[in-house]
Amino acid sequence: MGRPNSVLILGGSGQAGAGAAAVLRRWHPELPLTIAGRDLDRAQRVADELGEATAATVDLRRGDLGLPTDGKYLAVVAALWDDRLRGLRYAQERGLPYLSISSGLVDIAPEIVASAQRPGGSPVLVASHFCAGIVVLATLYAAREFERIDTIRIGAVLDESDAGGPAGLADLERWATATSAGLIRRDGVFTWVAEPDARTAVPSTDGILVPGRSIAILDVPSLALATGAPNVRFDFAVGESARRRRGGPASLEVRIDVEGTGPGGQPRSLHRYLVHPQGQRPLTALGIALGVERLLGLRGEAVPPGIHTPEALLDVSYTAERLTETGAKLIDAPGNQ
């Protein structure tokens, strides 16, 4: 059984779920957590390491998730792909906040419809962005002094040895199966781009170009609509990161290019990298933890029912502070102004 009024983390023994639980434990030592997974022994090991946490088995084929009928929770976090939306329904039926990270742009329609059908129900945070919204928030923070933004281009290099556990790999395969086209915003119009226009090369921090492609990802509409930028593109490459080429462990590198005008209408451009020496896992865990903290009202005002995205709920300056704590850095790229 979960602890009374605990945060229920579905997939809590996986990389994203366990990482987020560890972050929440550091920030809020007394916040009860329930680590739910298919393998009880694995979930119990994670719970034991955390303290103030319990383990539970979960069955996503059942409406009650296979949990005890007297279980009481503060929120439901889907740190895994829930193809039947059992976790969302479970949260809605109990009026609980809900956060998901695995739907992606191609799979969010059922979540949107389910939430629209119950407008007075749960607050739903759709965080199926890259690193659970952290790249969007870091970009908004880096570009906060622009007066007008005309173009945003993101280029992420994910080390091939850092693609995540089985759940993360399954997500990548599912998204690739759904569409090979990328979604961009061009001259204010959201546009699908197919071969060969989708193909590109993403510059790593050491200048090496890693073959990649434009992808369909929530970061594109989030950045476009948050900034008004008429041109937005997100390119993604899987290969060897610069740190691993130097003989170290895998790192994450995300290039952020922004063009527009600064104060007074003067042309301005920004070229930076968001890097983390431990790869994508710490940033994904941070994105989930920030979302949970906000949904629970542990920081900021209470979140009303309805659909929400990370940039609509989370403060970019606070996010930047937390990013620094994880060991992430925003560094200048060549040509930064």
Write the layout of secondary structure elements.
Blueprint: E1 6-10, H1 15-27, E2 33-37, H2 40-50, E3 53-57, E4 73-78, H3 86-94, E5 98-100, H4 104-107, H5 109-116, E6 123-126, H6 134-142, E7 148-159, H7 166-178, E8 182-186, E9 189-193, E10 199-203, E11 209-214, H8 219-227, E12 231-239, H9 242-245, E13 252-261, E14 267-276, H10 281-295, E15 306-308, H11 310-313, H12 316-326, E16 329-332
Parallel strand pairs: 1-2, 1-4, 2-3, 4-5, 5-6, 6-15, 7-12
Antiparallel strand pairs: 7-13, 8-9, 10-11, 11-12, 13-14, 14-16
InterPro entries: NAD(P)-bd_dom_sf (IPR036291)
Organism: Embleya hyalina
Protein name: Saccharopine dehydrogenase
Structure description:
By secondary structure, the protein is of the alpha/beta class. The protein folds into two domains: 158 residues, Rossmann fold (3-Layer(aba) Sandwich); 162 residues, Dihydrodipicolinate Reductase, domain 2. 33% of the residues lie in helices and 29% in strands. It is built from twelve helices and 16 strands. The strands form three sheets. The chain has a seven-stranded parallel β-sheet, with helices on both faces. Strands 10-11-12-7-13-14-16 form a seven-stranded mixed β-sheet. Helix 1 links the parallel strand 1 and strand 2. Helix 6 runs parallel beside helix 8 and helix 10 crosses helix 12. The termini are far apart. The model has no long low-confidence stretch (mean pLDDT 93).
